[in-house]
Amino acid sequence: MAQKVPPLQWLRAFEAAARYESFAAAAKEIHLTSAAVSHQVRSLEEYLGFKMFERLPRGLRLTDMGRAYLPSVRKAFDDLTVSTLGLFGADEQKVLTVRVSTSFASLCLAPVLGEFRRQYPHIDVRLYTAVWADRPEHDDADLEIRFGDGLWQGWNVQRLTHETSILVSAQPMQQPMTVQDYLRQQAQSGIIQIMGCEGLWMRLLRRYGIEQDNEVTGLITDNSLTALELARNGLGATLVSQRFALPYLESGQLCRPVEAYVPVEQGHYILLPEGQRVAKPEALLFKNWLCQRLAQPAPAV
């Protein structure tokens, strides 16, 4: 016989109380009295045979068992929300605000966002773009996409991409030479670097056995999109995310003079609010859709 699942209202009271660490605050959200929320949580505890909270003089604290149970409860509610919105739509038009870097919005989102709009016409997407996506101009964004190591406090973080940086240029190799000779030539003549990623060039040189005593010189820009445009206009070679470079390579605007690349530990992450802010249903839906859309592996380097 299948194991019985606790009543939904008990689980909802538990999740809200865990988020606010307070029965009173949870009661305001789910439109019950504080006593009713406390009773529902106690009923859940009796049903499961474990305490979910320590009752403190000022608020609540999850027990080890409550902390272990909470992620599964939240995921169940998120899955139910996404499935309901995805299958049945919404009663009214919804607005989803996404904060994202200019490069990712232009080179990764723009080519596929039409698919999302066709699939979910009841959701209007508003993109807030910036060079550095983790700047706090739009703290009210429903969802963010950032590049980094994934260590951001106060957010539910999920990795979107694993990155490899490749060398691209508008000009193919003019005469036959080894990868090492080509990289030395570019390092001496000046290359296009991306602010915050300057160390990748030195890593690339070391990867191919090249010792460079002096700093690599050339143009420096603050985003990948501009670096690609500078390269397209013949101002030098640049080392950029393979994912970002792909549209330029497929259109023939840029080429890979040599098959040089360097793996990147950082990646793009999708962030949803954590804590007392509840992720909007349309944000959960967009997150799931984008994760599936970007799960397709990039071409081999």
Automatic annotation (TrEMBL):
Membrane-spanning residues: none
GO terms for biological process, alphabetical: DNA-templated transcription
PROSITE patterns in the cross-refs: HTH_LYSR (PS50931)
Entry keyword Disulfide bond: no
Protein's UniProt keywords contain Transcription regulation: yes
Residues covered by the HTH lysR-type domain: 6-63
Keywords carried by this UniProt record: DNA-binding, Transcription, Transcription regulation
Entry-linked SUPFAM superfamilies: Periplasmic binding protein-like II (SSF53850), Winged helix' DNA-binding domain (SSF46785)
GO MF annotations, alphabetized: DNA-binding transcription factor activity; sequence-specific DNA binding
Record-linked InterPro entries: LysR-type_TF_proteobact-type (IPR058163), LysR_HTH_N (IPR000847), LysR_subst-bd (IPR005119), WH-like_DNA-bd_sf (IPR036388), WH_DNA-bd_sf (IPR036390)
UniProt similarity note: Belongs to the LysR transcriptional regulatory family.
Protein name: LysR family transcriptional regulator
